[in-house]
Amino acid sequence: MELKKQDNIAAGLVSDRFPTVSGIVIQITYYRKAAIPLLMVRTVNICPTSYAYFKMDCMIKGCDGGGFDLTSVVINMIKAHKKMKSGALNCSGTADAIESDHARIEYAAVIQYKRVSAVKS
Ligand SMILES: [Zn+2]
């Protein structure tokens, strides 16, 4: 938890890093390698006062250091002023006790932007 707190602080606030963004909603569906692969569905709501931290933890026991990093997805969307994007990611965890394809997510990210006020010349 302590490490995560530091990560959050290092990431900075959404309003500072991405001043044009008014909100981000990411729906994440977690899958594992099992007979019933669907693990859980969660929705992450990020507002301008949230930390700009988009790395999601892996839900699999024994997976240390793994997870799903959506940072580049979000940054690329904001750069392109894109409102919606969906895709899939595999867990980056490589612990010996777990298989490399033990977990993956499907995500759907929606970003809302502030209305750009007219620039006075
Ligand atoms: Zn994992």
Secondary-structure blueprint of this entry?
Blueprint: H1 2-11, H2 14-17, E1 21-32, E2 38-46, E3 55-56, E4 68-69, H3 71-79, E5 84-90, E6 103-113
Zinc ion binds at residues 58, 60, 63, 66, 91, 93, 102-103.
Provide structural commentary.
The structure is a single chain. This protein is α+β, with helices and mostly antiparallel strands and 121 residues long. The strands form 2 sheets. It has a 4-stranded antiparallel sheet with strand order 2-1-6-5, with helices on one face. It has a two-stranded antiparallel sheet with strand order 3-4. The protein is built from 3 helices and 6 strands. It starts with a helix and ends in an 8-residue tail after the last strand. It has one domain (2-113). The chain has helices at 2-11, 14-17, 71-79, and strands spanning 21-32, 38-46, 55-56, 68-69, 84-90, 103-113. It is globular, with a radius of gyration of 16 Å. Helices cover 19% and strands 36% of the residues. The structure holds zinc ion. Residues 58, 60, 63, 66, 91, 93, 102-103 line the site of zinc ion.
